[in-house]
Amino acid sequence: MFNIFKKGGLFEEIEHITPDEALKKISGEHKGNKTLIIDVREPHEFNGNLGHIENAESIPMRLLPAKIKELEAYKDKEIIAVCHSGARSHSACAMLKKHGFNKVYNLKGGMLLWKKFGFKSHTHI
Fold first, then answer.
1. CATH at residue 109
2. In a domain, 68, yes or no
């Protein structure tokens, strides 16, 4: 019997990055490689007390399947998926990888850990 949770099985391995690693990727945009940040929380969470990462796109998890085509331009660019704690964004990463997105990262600990690291977030659209 094969393990469906390992690379090459049903699910590709999802790469997790810490908030400081994510900040380095976002800050490294001077190279011309814009990192797309997808926040898969609901709108009230996106603008709630944890806020959201600057320039993050709000695409609630329930809407992600319908938005995959719109994201095609980012298939070979870096995408960081974000949620409250890292669970929904992990699912978003798995969905994106299934659709051929290659450079997908899950923000470990989500916005909870981002705020714990003391990084800036925004609460307005």
1. 3.40.250.10
2. yes
Find out whether 42 and 60 touch, Cβ atoms under 8 Å.
Answer: yes
The predicted model scores a pTM of: 0.87
Which residue of the set 83, 93, 104, 111 is catalytic? 83
Tokens 């003391």 identify what position?
Answer: 118
**pLDDT for position 10:** 43
Total structural domains in the chain? 1
Predicted confidence (pLDDT) per residue in 58-97, tens digit: 999 999 999 999 999 999 899 999 999 999 999 999 999 9
Helix (H) or strand (E) holding 66: helix 64-67
Q: Which domain holds residue 59?
A: 23-116
Q: 93 an active-site residue? A: no
